[in-house]
């Protein structure tokens, strides 16, 4: 999990501190992990343990005036930590995509889904509007979204959460990023849409070799999807292991406690969904 050479994404000694009136306060510390091409790394831990802070730091989404990020975050060997906003904008979406819990937050309410999809494609490619729209439709067909032309004409609020999440995944997938950071991508969805989204992510991983950092509090999702898992508690990694090892022989007391509350989603026991 940590051999830097094979890792597409490598995080070393990450420490994130927030500025307060009493000085800097650590939110996450000593975070070390790597993800190889085509692999899924699960990140689990209770609410507030630092999962989102870790993912936002990887994507350099924090305002550097309030947040101090130390350590190294390399994507295909390139250091991301400390890059300027305009440099990160070139990388986000193209080389590393972010899928967040609430897809509504990913879209601007005042523009149509199509406008936002096409502009995202155009900001990373030399395609003109017509070509970008064609690509958007192709990718939406790839993720089995019904009637892509109609969806593109909709505003975000006109689509269901599940539909919007799949559009966001289509947007994330269309530029074949090396890494997808998916922060609780299924939490806001009903079971049917959870399954669709997980299968889509798995398809993108297997077809494009995309590495996925999958953040979830749902150990059922992690068990289905992840190759390796890291467990966080109070801003630190307390355990790292292969998924089978973690579920069968958890070492840390906190991991054992998490596993006793294990739910929920048994993907293989669900009816087959004919979409992929
Ligand atoms: N922008 C911020 N400024 C100050 N503190 C923050 C900020 N973002 C997160 N925190 C704090 O950092 C800690 C970790 O939060 P984080 O959102 O990473 O947790 P999480 O594991 O993702 O939780 P959840 O599962 O509920 O999303 C929490 O104590 C949170 O209050």
From TrEMBL:
Subcellular location as annotated: Cell membrane
Presence of the UniProt keyword Transferase in the record: no
Gene3D superfamilies named among the record's database cross-references: P-loop containing nucleotide triphosphate hydrolases
Residues covered by the ABC transporter domain: 9-259
Molecular function terms, GO-annotated: ABC-type nickel transporter activity; ATP binding; ATP hydrolysis activity; nickel cation binding
Source species, domain of life: Bacteria
A GO cellular component entry from the record: plasma membrane
Keyword Cell inner membrane in record: yes
Protein topology in the membrane: Peripheral membrane protein
Broad class of where this protein is predominantly found: membrane
PROSITE patterns registered for this protein in UniProt: ABC_TRANSPORTER_1, ABC_TRANSPORTER_2
InterPro entries associated with the record: AAA+_ATPase, ABC_Ni/Peptide_Import, ABC_transporter-like_ATP-bd, ABC_transporter-like_CS, Nickel_NikD, P-loop_NTPase
Keyword entries, A-Z: ATP-binding, Cell inner membrane, Cell membrane, Ion transport, Membrane, Nickel, Nickel transport, Nucleotide-binding, Translocase, Transport
NCBIfam families reported for this sequence: nickel_nikD
Family: Belongs to the ABC transporter superfamily.
Name used for this protein in its record: Oligopeptide transport ATP-binding protein OppD
Organism, scientific name: Halalkalibacter krulwichiae
Lineage: Bacteria, Bacillati, Bacillota, Bacilli, Bacillales
């Amino acid at each position: 999990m940590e051999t830097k050479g094979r890792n597409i994404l490598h995080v070393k000694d990450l420490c994130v501190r927030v500025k307060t009136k009493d000085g800097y306060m650590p939110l996450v510390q000593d975070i070390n992990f790597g993800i190889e091409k085509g692999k899924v790394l699960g990140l689990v831990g209770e609410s507030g343990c630092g999962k989102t802070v870790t993912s936002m730091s990887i994507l350099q989404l924090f305002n550097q005036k309030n947040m101090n990020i130390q350590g190294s975050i390399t994507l295909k060997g390139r250091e991301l930590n400390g890059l300027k906003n305009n440099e990160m904008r070139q990388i986000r979406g193209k080389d590393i995509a972010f899928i967040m819990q609430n897809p509504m937050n990913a879209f601007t309410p005042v523009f149509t889904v199509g406008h936002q999809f096409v502009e995202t494609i155009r900001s990373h490619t030399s395609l003109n509007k017509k070509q970008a729209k064609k690509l958007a439709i192709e990718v939406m067909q790839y993720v089995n979204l019904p009637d892509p032309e109609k969806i593109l004409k909709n505003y975000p609020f006109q689509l269901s959460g599940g539909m919007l999440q799949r559009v966001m995944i289509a947007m994330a997938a269309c530029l074949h990023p090396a890494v997808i950071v998916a922060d609780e991508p299924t939490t806001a969805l009903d079971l049917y849409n959870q399954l669709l989204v997980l299968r889509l992510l798995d398809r993108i991983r297997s077809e494009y070799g995309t590495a996925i950092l999958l953040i979830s509090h749902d150990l059922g999702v992690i068990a289905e999807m992840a190759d390796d898992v890291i467990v966080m508690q109070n801003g630190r990694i307390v355990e790292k292991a292969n998924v089978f090892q973690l579920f069968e022989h958890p070492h840390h007391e906190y991991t054992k406690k998490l596993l006793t509350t294990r739910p929920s989603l048994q993907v293989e026991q669900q009816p087959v969904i004919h979409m992929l």
